[in-house]
């Protein structure tokens, strides 16, 4: 057995914390995994679209520092340290099995000894299952592997054996039940001396996907707001208050769909679970951030980064768990479905409140009391609170970013 533990990071696209931590799906493996190691209940993604969220996961930094602004804007800054780069320097073999928009043009392949990108229909629900098992079983130790799973991303193909109410009320929750078994089988192929992290890049709106009224309402909203620049928030809030209850009992908003367009908790609160050698069972209820994942993995592997590397990270380790207190979470909505960068939003979630602003729109900022209004349906007038939260926004600017020539790939994925 090697002296250094192996590491597997399983990044499940669109994995919501609430659906994993509740009875919405049937997830015996993930339930046991959560109980056996470190679990974060209130960890928030840095963005609600895949590429910038994964960039923060791999660098421990926000987009303002790492250079990845959205799916198609910006590539990874070559000077920013990454998980595979750091582990490679310390003797690990590093390998990625990625899919979706995580193409090499983003720069996220940097630092990996091997970076394998597959088509999105190659999933653990199909023939790729054997490929994934064989590849992980053949890695030389010590290894650090990153596996990006696409099974919960729209359009979802639920395996027939799980397409029934016992496994959930939506395609998403049924697919999560099926994925639970596949992740169990994948983890069982690993050597005993392996740390396993399970994480969601961002969440997803799931309850009203195929409702024709929602499809019509959202199309009208999008045209008026994203192309016309009209502030539709008051109208949309009223519709959501009236119609949210039409679907399953899952936190969501009627007029939302998918991810990338908003910073609601159901698209930002994602699980982070870590189990394996040296990890004691613990649950962190304090608010934490996606940028804290990389420092935590390094701490779990007993890697001390030098001062220069540490200075490049915005996050802090979540170990020891007993010492973790609430941390302000910075979140951005920058999905391709917003159509133009001027429609991007950014937010701070801190101290039981959320502040949202639209830097390139002349719209007033929003402020929510999350204790009184966890669904974020009624913005409050609270200038002092807003000013206090605003101070937690990054001091760096996003600045200009190269527009990547990956439109054909994003169109195939349904983003454009």
From TrEMBL:
Domain of life per record: Archaea
GO molecular function, one term: arylsulfatase activity
Gene3D superfamilies per UniProt: Alkaline Phosphatase, subunit A
Domain Sulfatase N-terminal residues, every copy: 5-303
InterPro entries cross-referenced by the UniProt entry: Alkaline_phosphatase_core_sf (IPR017850), Sulfatase (IPR050738), Sulfatase_N (IPR000917)
UniProt-listed PANTHER family: ARYLSULFATASE (PTHR42693:SF33), ARYLSULFATASE FAMILY MEMBER (PTHR42693)
Similarity remark: Belongs to the sulfatase family.
Protein name: Sulfatase
Species of provenance: Halococcus salifodinae DSM 8989
Upper lineage: Archaea, Methanobacteriati, Methanobacteriota, Stenosarchaea group, Halobacteria
């Amino acid at each position: 057995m090697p002296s250094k533990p192996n590491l597997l990071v399983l990044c499940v696209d669109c994995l919501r914390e609430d659906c994993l931590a509740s009875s919405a799906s049937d997830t015996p493996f993930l339930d046991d995994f959560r109980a056996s190691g470190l679990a974060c209940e209130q960890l928030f993604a840095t963005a609600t679209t895949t590429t910038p969220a994964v960039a923060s996961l791999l660098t421990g930094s926000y987009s303002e520092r790492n250079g990845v602004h959205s799916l198609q804007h910006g590539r990874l800054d070559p000077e920013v340290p990454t998980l595979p780069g750091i582990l490679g320097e310390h003797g690990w073999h590093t390998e990625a099995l990625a899919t979706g928009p995580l193409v090499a043009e983003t720069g996220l392949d940097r630092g990996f000894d091997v970076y394998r990108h597959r088509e999105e229909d190659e999933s653990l629900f199909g023939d790729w299952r054997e490929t994934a098992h064989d590849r992980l079983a053949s890695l030389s130790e010590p290894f650090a592997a990153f596996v990006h799973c696409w099974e919960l991303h729209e359009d979802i193909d639920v395996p027939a054996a799980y397409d029934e109410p016992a496994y959930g009320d939506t395609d998403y929750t049924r697919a999560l039940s099926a994925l639970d078994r596949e992740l169990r089988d994948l983890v069982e192929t690993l050597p005993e001396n392996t740390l396993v992290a399970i994480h969601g890049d961002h969440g997803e709106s799931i309850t009203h996907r195929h409702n024709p009224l929602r499809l019509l309402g959202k199309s009208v909203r999008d045209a008026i707001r994203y192309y016309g620049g009209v502030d539709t928030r008051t109208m949309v809030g009223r519709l959501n208050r009236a119609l949210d209850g039409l679907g399953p009992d899952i936190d969501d908003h009627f007029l939302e769909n998918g991810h990338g367009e908003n910073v609601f908790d159901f698209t930002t609160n994602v699980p982070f679970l870590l189990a394996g050698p040296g990890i004691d069972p613990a649950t962190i209820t304090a608010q934490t951030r996606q940028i804290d994942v990389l420092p935590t993995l390094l701490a779990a592997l007993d890697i001390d980064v030098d001062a220069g590397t540490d200075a490049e990270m915005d996050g802090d380790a979540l170990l020891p768990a007993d010492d973790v207190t609430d941390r302000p979470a910075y979140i951005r909505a920058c999905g391709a479905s917003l159509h133009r960068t001027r429609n991007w939003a950014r937010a701070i979630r801190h101290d039981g409140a959320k502040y949202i602003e639209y830097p390139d729109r002349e719209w007033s900022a929003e402020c929510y009391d999350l204790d009184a209004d966890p669904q974020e349906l009624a913005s409050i007038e609270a200038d002092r609170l807003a000013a206090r939260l605003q101070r937690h926004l990054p001091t760096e600017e996003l600045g200009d970013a190269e527009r990547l020539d990956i439109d054909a790939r994003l169109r195939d994925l349904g983003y454009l």
